[in-house]
Specification:
alpha+beta; GMP Synthetase, Chain A, domain 3; 3-stranded mixed sheet
C-alpha cells in the first residue's frame, strides 16, 4: 500500500522553520499536498521571496518525505499565489511564538492584499 495524504501531512508537521520553533504547517506555508502512485507533490510558499530559509526548508521536506515507505519521488514546488500573510498562521503557532515574545497580528485578507 502506498503513502497517504494524511501521512504526508503528519511528516510535514515535523518540519520546522529554522528561524522559528514552529512547524511550516502551523505557519501556513504548506499550500497543498498530492499523492499520485509513489510520487508526492508538496506546494509551499514563504513569507517573502527573499526568505533565506527557502532551500533549507525545501531540502528538509524532501529528506523527511523520502524516508516514508512507499515514496519514490518527492516534488517540492514553490507557489506565490495566494501570497502568504500573517492571517495564514494557525492559532497553535501564534501561541508558541508568543511564548518567545513574537506577536503575529493577523489581518483579514482583502482584495487589496492580493
Amino acid at each position: 500500500m502506498g503513502v497517504t495524504v494524511d501521512q504526508v501531512w503528519r511528516v510535514l508537521q515535523t518540519v520546522e522553520d529554522p528561524e522559528l520553533p514552529v512547524s511550516i504547517v502551523d505557519l501556513g506555508l504548506v499550500r497543498g499536498v498530492r499523492v499520485e502512485g509513489d510520487g508526492v507533490t508538496v506546494e509551499v510558499t514563504f513569507t517573502a521571496m527573499g526568505c533565506p530559509c527557502m532551500e533549507w526548508i525545501r531540502e528538509d521536506i524532501q529528506t523527511r518525505l523520502a524516508r516514508l515507505p512507499g515514496v519514490g519521488r518527492v516534488d517540492v514546488r514553490v507557489v506565490w499565489d495566494p501570497p502568504w500573510t500573517p492571517a495564514d498562521v494557525r492559532p497553535t503557532a501564534r501561541e508558541a511564538l508568543a511564548r518567545y515574545g513574537v506577536v503575529v497580528r493577523a489581518r483579514a485578507r482583502s482584495r487589496r492584499d492580493l
